[in-house]
Structure formats: structure tokens, C-alpha cells
């Protein structure tokens, strides 16, 4: 019986992907959940490796009960065979079967319209091809980190990296830490580090209270989120973390590794106020400037983007028939929003793959939650911002692209005397963004220093693929109907 | 004079015109190298040209690139590495040898390489190839760097981000300059170096020029120690270049770069300006490259890029004054060879602009040679 159900490939097993998987599986769809992690959960519900014997991993997570519900739901579906969970599968591209190109899925529900190509980790030397009738992208986000003098010193880590270490390995990255940048991620990182025993000297946030007051209406729409913020504030107080709002890091110092950072207050023009510089000794600096959506796979499928995010409709459908997107890839908004979007996307996919329409999304609770949380995250995104003139603080000698060791001076020369006017030309002239990370680490920084828009670059494959695999891809049989 | 198009060909026109004593304004609606130049591999090839006018232009260009390399070689990553064309079958080798003989008669240096010698030139080549020909004059530059540095060395006034909306003509029909979205740029001569968009610029002057796009993909691998020493490609590449077929054609051109990655290129498709990622094309390139160099099986592709090569129906560029519009010159439609042919094209345009006799006969490149077809 179950062999006759349509197959939905869900890419990403974080909050959005899990919610989508459960919603679709509950409505008669077979789901292949594909994820690069060794366990479900994604970045938000990142789990410690079992061998570590963590006794209270929930101490580092909030919404632990939600996670337990998702985990139990997934286990049930794995047991009844409705869901297949492929771990350690690194998707490098999704191929649209040309025979169904341009055709709405519901007109030909028998056609397995997509092939997902994934490399098997951790070696990533072998590949598999997974056929599906629909694809749901829940690929999440990656960290935005802006450069400053000294940011390449050992001891400087990304905020998300510090958090991943805490959640995944339960190790303490250092003993005396400063958390800096901008965005809601800095709060759990600071409290998480403190709870794990580090002395958190300061939380340096470039946004200030007035940035939030100005957006109080959209923020007041989500009192639970505000309460969550208040909870962090209490914990910061308890751990004696000095919160420096409207401050920024000017420079990280050290010879072999990080020894201290200089921070300064920001004036009304967004530039450091003279005479406010303060040197803080520390051995760890966790820095982050927000998150950016992962859109490579969507872009490769030809899905339309809105700025940096995948464009979706009320049902979380992209403009490519048979492709849905949910969670941070459609706009960064946090785990609760991702859960709501994933749920709606899973419902829509199940209905559409069966040739019907989902219940009007507007009436469901998930749709209301989505509306409310989107307004909230837009308010947050407007409030949390790096200093307006941060790029001025990046000295010519500062390396902005670490893979290719390109300095800010080289970027400025490309713009100044070589006639580059956009990020692509800067990249071609300097090699900034051409290295192993393909610009994910440095794109925002290079664009800021160059003074041009950070246009996401086409960069398929989504991860490096051996030529031999490209030349002779594995071909699995299409799923039976 | 005004040069429209700040790609490789426009930059070379600016450089040679400035060195001939002209004041040059280089205008482009995008940045420097924002079109086909930024999506190319930087091939400076004589090996892929059949005897004829394009080969003469390639030989002139190769000489000029060698001269420019004296001052700008490092900045533009000039590498006179030579090309190695290989044939997999005895028949293919016979055809290649015939082509090489004709090229030799036209002044190309060619060195026959028999099967046993191939691996001393390229130790990682696949076994079992029939033989090949070495072309010492083939070379490489990094095309975006080359365009940017030639433009800067020309001293031309660079007007990027400025769109030409009309070619201005006087009562007598002669060119007076160009109108842009940010004011007029007046000059008695305008050079159309707009590459793939050369037909549009010609139309702004009121004349047809049937430039069409041909899509090409290039694969870029992870950085490696130098294992591919020459530009290596299969002999069928020559046939593809001259082809009129709209269908996908791929012959692997494999080469190492100064920066480390190996470039694999030369797919050719006539699909209009379609920017979507094409898996079959990328697969065909990968298959061709791994056939030539089996070690590439385990080497990872970091990214792919695509560009649109401008071509004219007879696969020769439009080069020289346009007899239909006094003061209008064309230097566009170089297909996949624009980086290599840029120096010669720039030099010939400068010679034509200053009233001298160009050192090559421009008749085969006449911009109005398609006029009758276009109006028919």
C-alpha cells in the first residue's frame, strides 16, 4: 500500500525540515528526509554526540519540549516506514527531470520530477541519487561575520561556532570570553558560555535600546519572544556579564593568538565615539552579525529569490512547480517561525502531491503564528544592525577573504583604480570569495569594504563534487508508485 | 574617441588608440569585464584556428600579447605555456597533422608529438592516445585582470555604470559621439566593442550587425599543485569551434592556472541568453576532462560559471570602419576567442582610426558583410 504513495524529499532536518516531514507524512506522503548531520535537529536542536554521555543537554536548549515532540514524532514515522532519514548525506544539487519541466506537479503526479544528488559523508567521495515527486528545501542559514583588524587571530570564533561547540561537544572554547557583533544569537551564546563556566567579560552589541523602541509595535506582537529575551537578560545579570549596547569591536590584539580586544561606544552617526575605547583582556572572542539564508539549491533549481531569501507563496511554494521552501532559507526568523513554515509547507506538499489543495492556510494556527513571527523577525532584523560605517574600521592590511588571503587594501584597489563596480568583478580581480568556502565567510565583508551590494553569487555545486562523480553519476531507480 | 564596452576588446582598443595619441573615453553600462570577459578562461590560442584571416589575426595578437607581457605580464597572469592538442585515434591524428601542416604554412610554430612522447610533456595524460601536436605560441592570461590592467594602462577616462542609449550622428550622417543615461559624450569616432551586445550598439547607430550569443560553461576545480602543464585539449575542439550546429558541443580544454585551480571549459550551445545551470553540459565537460586526465576523477569541482560568446554567422569578428556610418568602428563578435584576439583587434582599430594602413587586410572582417542578408 505505502509503495503507492508519492515521495517528498525534504532537505534539512532542522526545525523546518522536521515539521514539514511530520506534516507531510501524517497526510499520506512518503518522506525521504535528507540531512548532512549525523542526527536530526539541525543547528538549533544540535545534539551532543552520544559518546559524550551528556546528562542534561536540555540545559543548553530552550523549547526542549518541542524538540522532544518532534523527536518522538519522527521515531514513530521511522518505525512505520513512512519516513526514511538519510543522515550524513551532503546534497550538492537537485536536478529537475526535463520531461516534466514547466508542468504543474498535480497534472502528472506519477512523474518523479526530481533527482537529489548527495555525497556521503564524512569522506564525501561517493554519491547517491534520490528520486522524488516533490522537493522541500529546509536548508537553513549560515553565519554572517564582518571583518575587523585582528579577526583572523586564533581565539576569534564565530558566535554560531561557539554555540555549536557548546551544544555538540559540550566543550568550553576558552576561559575568558567576549561576545560581540549584533543579533539575537549573541544572547544565548553569552549565557551558554557563562553557564558552561567561562567568564564572559562583555556582550558587545552594536544595536541600542532606541533601535528596539522604534520598532516596538512589531516586537510587541510576540510577547513570548520578548519574555525569552527578558529571561536572557536575567541570566546575563546573574553571570555578571557586562552588556555594552551601541558598542563595537575596533580591533582584536594578540601575537600568536588572541590576548585582548578593544571596544568603543558608537556615536549617533554610527562611528566610534572618540575617547571611549576600552581594552578588554580575553582569550576568546565570539563574533557574529546575523544569519544569511542558504539558497544555493533553490537558485540551481531556478527558484526566484527575494533579496537573499527564497521567494515563497502562502503555501510555502517556490515559483518552480514541485519545489517548496521553509525556514531560514525563506528569510531568517528563528526556530518558532521555521516550525510554523515547515508545517505549512508539509501540508501543502502533501495536498498538492495528491492532486488536491490544502485547507485554506489563512485559517490555521500555523499560518497565524507565521504572520505574527514574520512581523516580529522583520522588526528584529531592522533593530539589529552592524554599525553604519563598520567598513571604515577595516584597515588596508586586514585580510577580508581568508581562503585566498585577500586584504581590504586589494579590494579597495580593485574598486578604486581597476574599475570594479560589483561584487563579481571584485572577486574576479582579487580572488576574494574564490576559495574553499566560496565566499560564504567573506561575501558580506568584501561587499562592505568594496562599497557594493552583497549579491548572492551563483555557486553550484552546493559543495565540492569530484569530477568522476559528475562524469558518471549513480542512477538509482525511480521510486515505485 | 569613445569606446563602448569595457571588456577585453574595448580595453585593448583603448590602449592602442591611446598609444597612437588619441584621447579615449571607455564607457560601459556595467563594471570592467562585466560581460563575456569575466566569464572566460583567458585563452590566447593560435592552435584552434584554421588557416585564414582569423589565424592571421591570432598570430598578430599573439605577438602583441608577448610584447605587452614585458610590462604587464605578472599583473595579468600571462603564461606562455603552449598548447597540446591530442588525438585519440589514428584517423584523428591524421586530420590533426593535416591541420597543423596548413597552420605551419601560415606561420604557426607546430611540433608533432608521437604517442610515446605525450607523457613526457604531460605526465598525467591518459594512456592510449594516438599522438598530438604542440603549439608553443599558445598562452594564457587571467581575462578580468587583463581587461582591467589594459584599461588602466591606457589612461583612458573610464565611465563604468553608464549606459549608451544612442549613437549621435550629425547632419552629414557622421558620428558625433554617444548619448548616455548620464549625458552626452562627444567624439568624432565611436568604437563598438560591446561583444555579445554588439548588435544592440550597432542598432543604436542605425545599422544591423547580426551578433548572436553562444553559451559556454567552465568548471573550476579545487586548487592543486601544477599537474597540467599546457593547455590540453582533444582534436575535435577545432571542429566544434567552426560548427554551425545549435546543439550542445563539448570538447574538454583542460589547463592549470597560476592560482592553482584547473579550468575545464569549452562547451558551446546556442540557447540564447539562458543563464540556468545545465547539468548535462557540466556532466559532458567532466566526462571529457576525466577521459584526458584520469587523475581528475578524484579532484573536486568548486564552482561552475557560464558566459555568452558573441558570434557572427561566418564565425569571424566585425573589425574596422563601418562604411554605412562614417566615424563608427566595430570590434566585436570574436566568439570564444576575444581575449586572444583583443590585442590584434585593438592595434588594427587604432591604425584605422589614425588613418594609417592596417597591417592586416580588414576586408574579411568588414562589418557590413551581412548587410544584404540582414535586410533581405
TrEMBL record, chain A:
Oxidoreductase as UniProt keyword: yes
Name of this protein: Oxidase
InterPro entries: BFD-like_2Fe2S-bd_dom, BFD-like_2Fe2S-bd_dom_sf, FAD/NAD-bd_sf, FAD/NAD-binding_dom, Metab_Enz_Cyan_OpOx_G3PDH, Opine_Oxase_asu/HCN_bsu
Keywords: Oxidoreductase
Domain FAD/NAD(P)-binding positions: 8-330
A Gene Ontology molecular function term of the record: oxidoreductase activity
Annotated BFD-like [2Fe-2S]-binding domain residues: 399-445
Pfam families according to UniProt: Fer2_BFD, Pyr_redox_2
Superkingdom of the source species: Bacteria
Residue intervals passing through the bilayer: none
Amino acid at each position: 500500500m505505502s509503495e503507492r504513495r508519492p515521495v517528498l524529499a525534504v532537505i534539512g532536518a532542522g526545525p523546518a525540515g522536521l515539521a514539514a516531514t511530520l506534516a507531510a507524512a501524517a497526510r499520506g506522503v512518503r518522506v525521504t528526509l535528507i540531512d548532512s548531520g549525523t542526527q536530526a535537529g539541525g543547528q538549533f536542536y544540535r545534539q551532543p554526540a552520544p559518546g559524550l554521555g551528556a546528562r542534561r543537554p536540555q540545559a543548553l536548549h530552550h523549547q526542549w519540549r518541542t524538540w522532544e515532540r518532534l523527536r518522538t514524532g519522527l521515531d514513530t514515522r521511522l518505525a512505520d516506514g513512512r519516513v526514511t532519514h538519510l543522515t550524513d548525506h551532503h546534497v550538492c544539487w537537485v536536478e529537475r527531470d526535463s520531461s516534466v519541466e514547466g508542468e504543474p506537479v498535480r497534472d502528472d503526479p506519477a512523474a518523479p520530477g526530481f533527482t537529489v544528488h548527495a555525497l556521503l559523508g564524512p569522506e564525501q567521495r561517493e554519491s547517491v541519487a534520490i528520486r522524488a515527486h516533490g522537493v522541500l528545501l529546509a536548508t537553513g542559514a549560515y553565519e554572517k561575520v564582518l571583518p575587523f583588524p585582528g579577526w583572523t587571530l586564533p581565539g576569534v570564533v564565530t558566535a554560531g561556532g561557539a554555540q555549536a561547540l557548546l551544544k555538540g561537544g559540550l566543550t568550553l572554547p576558552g576561559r575568558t570570553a567576549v561576545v560581540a557583533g549584533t543579533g539575537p544569537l549573541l544572547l544565548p551564546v553569552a549565557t551558554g558560555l557563562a553557564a558552561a563556566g567561562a567568564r564572559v567579560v562583555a556582550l558587545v552589541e552594536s544595536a541600542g535600546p532606541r533601535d528596539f523602541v522604534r520598532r516596538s509595535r512589531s516586537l510587541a506582537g510576540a510577547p513570548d519572544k520578548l519574555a525569552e529575551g527578558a529571561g536572557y537578560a536575567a541570566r546575563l545579570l546573574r553571570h555578571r556579564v557586562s552588556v555594552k549596547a551601541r558598542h563595537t569591536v575596533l580591533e582584536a590584539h594578540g601575537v600568536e593568538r588572541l590576548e585582548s580586544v578593544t571596544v568603543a561606544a558608537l556615536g549617533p552617526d554610527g562611528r566610534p565615539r572618540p575617547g571611549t575605547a576600552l581594552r578588554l583582556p580575553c582569550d576568546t572572542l565570539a563574533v557574529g552579525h546575523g544569519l544569511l539564508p542558504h539558497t544555493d539549491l533553490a537558485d540551481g533549481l531556478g527558484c526566484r529569490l527575494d533579496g537573499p531569501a527564497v521567494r515563497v507563496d502562502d503555501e510555502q511554494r517556490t515559483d518552480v512547480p514541485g519545489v517548496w521552501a521553509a525556514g531560514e532559507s525563506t528569510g531568517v526568523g528563528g526556530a518558532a517561525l521555521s516550525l510554523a513554515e515547515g508545517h505549512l509547507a508539509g501540508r501543502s506538499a502533501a495536498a498538492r502531491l495528491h492532486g488536491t489543495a490544502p485547507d485554506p492556510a489563512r485559517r490555521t494556527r500555523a499560518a497565524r503564528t507565521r504572520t505574527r513571527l514574520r512581523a516580529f523577525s522583520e522588526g528584529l532584523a531592522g533593530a539589529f544592525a552592524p554599525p553604519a560605517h563598520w567598513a571604515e574600521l577595516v584597515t588596508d592590511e586586514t585580510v577580508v577573504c581568508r581562503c585566498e588571503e585577500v586584504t581590504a587594501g586589494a579590494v579597495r584597489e580593485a574598486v578604486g583604480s581597476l574599475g570594479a563596480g560589483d561584487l563579481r568583478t571584485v572577486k574576479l580581480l582579487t580572488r576574494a570569495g574564490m576559495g574553499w568556502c566560496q565566499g560564504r565567510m567573506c561575501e558580506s565583508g568584501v561587499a562592505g569594504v568594496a562599497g557594493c551590494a552583497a549579491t548572492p553569487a551563483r555557486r553550484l555545486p552546493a559543495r565540492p563534487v569530484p569530477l568522476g562523480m559528475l562524469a558518471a553519476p549513480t542512477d538509482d531507480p525511480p521510486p515505485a508508485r | 574617441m569613445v569606446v563602448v564596452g569595457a571588456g577585453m576588446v574595448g580595453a585593448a582598443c583603448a590602449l592602442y588608440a591611446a598609444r597612437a595619441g588619441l584621447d579615449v573615453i571607455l564607457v560601459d553600462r556595467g563594471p570592467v569585464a562585466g560581460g563575456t570577459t569575466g566569464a572566460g578562461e583567458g585563452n590566447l590560442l593560435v592552435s584552434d584556428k584554421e588557416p585564414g584571416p582569423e589565424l592571421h589575426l591570432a598570430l598578430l595578437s599573439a605577438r602583441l600579447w608577448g610584447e605587452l607581457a614585458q610590462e604587464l605580464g605578472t599583473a595579468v597572469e600571462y603564461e606562455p605555456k603552449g598548447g597540446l592538442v591530442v588525438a585519440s585515434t589514428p584517423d584523428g591524428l591524421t586530420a590533426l597533422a593535416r591541420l597543423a601542416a596548413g597552420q605551419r604554412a601560415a606561420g604557426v610554430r607546430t611540433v608533432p608529438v608521437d604517442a610515446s612522447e605525450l607523457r613526457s610533456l604531460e605526465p598525467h595524460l591518459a594512456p592510449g592516445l594516438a599522438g598530438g601536436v604542440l603549439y608553443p605560441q599558445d598562452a594564457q592570461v587571467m581575462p578580468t585582470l587583463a581587461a582591467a590592467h589594459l584599461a588602466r594602462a591606457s589612461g583612458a577616462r573610464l565611465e563604468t555604470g553608464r549606459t549608451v542609449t544612442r549613437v549621435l550622428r550629425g547632419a552629414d550622417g557622421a558620428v558625433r559621439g554617444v548619448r548616455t543615461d548620464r549625458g552626452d559624450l562627444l567624439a568624432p569616432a565611436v568604437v563598438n566593442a560591446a561583444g555579445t551586445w554588439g548588435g544592440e550598439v550597432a542598432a543604436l547607430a542605425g545599422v544591423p550587425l547580426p551578433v548572436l550569443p553562444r553559451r559556454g560553461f567552465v568548471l573550476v576545480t579545487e586548487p592543486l599543485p601544477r599537474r597540467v602543464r599546457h593547455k590540453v585539449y582533444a582534436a575535435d575542439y577545432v571542429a566544434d569551434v567552426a560548427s554551425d550546429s545549435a546543439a550542445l558541443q563539448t570538447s574538454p580544454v583542460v589547463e592549470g592556472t597560476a592560482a592553482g585551480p584547473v579550468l575545464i571549459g569549452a562547451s558551446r550551445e546556442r540557447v540564447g541568453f539562458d543563464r540556468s545551470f545545465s547539468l548535462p553540459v557540466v556532466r559532458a565537460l567532466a566526462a571529457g576532462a576525466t577521459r584526458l586526465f584520469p587523475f581528475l576523477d578524484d579532484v573536486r569541482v568548486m564552482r561552475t560559471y557560464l558566459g555568452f560568446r558573441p558570434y557572427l554567422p561566418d564565425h569571424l569578428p566585425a573589425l574596422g570602419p563601418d562604411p554605412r556610418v562614417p566615424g563608427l568602428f566595430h570590434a566585436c563578435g570574436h566568439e570564444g576567442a576575444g581575449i586572444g584576439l583583443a590585442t590584434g583587434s585593438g592595434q588594427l582599430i587604432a591604425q584605422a582610426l589614425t588613418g594609417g594602413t592596417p597591417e592586416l587586410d580588414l576586408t574579411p572582417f568588414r562589418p557590413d558583410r551581412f548587410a544584404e542578408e540582414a535586410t533581405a
